[in-house]
Amino acid sequence: MTILEKIGRALADEPATVVxxxxxxxxxxxxxxxxxxxxxxxxxxxxxxxxxxxxGRGYANVVATSDDGIHFTTVATLPVEMFASASLERPALIxxxxxxxxxxxxxxxxxxxxxxxxxxxxxxxxxIADLAAGTRTVVLAGDATSAWKDVVVTREGAAWQMWACExxxxxxxxxxxRMRSVYLTSTDGLTWTPQRxxxxxxxxxxxxxxxxxxxxxxxxxxxxxSYDGRASAAENWFERTGLAVGASPxxxxxxxxxxxxxxxxxxxxxLAQLPAGLQVYFEAQRPDGSxxxxxxxxxx
Length: 300
Prior knowledge:
Layout: H1 3-13, E1 17-20, E2 30-39, E3 42-50, E4 58-66, E5 73-79, E6 92-95, E7 101-108, E8 115-121, E9 135-140, E10 146-156, E11 159-168, E12 179-186, E13 193-199, E14 210-219, E15 222-230, E16 240-248, E17 251-259, E18 266-274, E19 277-285, E20 291-299
Protein name: Glycosyl hydrolase family 32 domain protein
């Protein structure tokens, strides 16, 4: 069985442990959109908290740490008010080369379908808890035709790589749920250059309306990715997961999906690579309609 087959089976069928409870009961109360970094023997998790649309939507990005990858302690909270934003979406957490920390935050413009992305940095060598008072930089401003959010960021030496979800605004608000994933590169993680579309919707398939890459990692000579997909505008917020393979980080092809749990939402898959396997985190729907943040271990 390949590693992608193991991941697919674990996500769909294996018992998972809830690591963050939803902030309320019922539709629209979500804990999820995780991003994880495993370094120096510890897990560092960033995630989004959300209420229903009429109660404020995405109201905070939270950063937490853990020794075992299951029991997390909150060390920093970045509230929506910090960004003068209507709502926050999935963050992306990364350790900088100078030992400091950076979190990328997806921010929504009031009264609009537009989104932009900011980076928040600690000082060099700064503690992860310092992110709550970090230095802010807009890294993807977006414009009248593009909204940017839900980024995935990795770094290899001096080379930074990003896979960003682009929502297309050129056909008005009713069509703004359409999405695709774009590959970008940078030398500092702050100024980014788009290279090409890394993953696009496949017409007529379960992911024909939109796709967004949620994690990327190397496996031998291949690049592997998880992504969220949906077939229609009605499935916005109810995405399922797919898996993709690329010969390079700039272009992926779907190979598996849709993956769900008993027909319910399963999205924002991200993972930590460990010596014995993968610690996989994801957002999943509960019977009451709320979403929690769960984890499952996939042995190598």
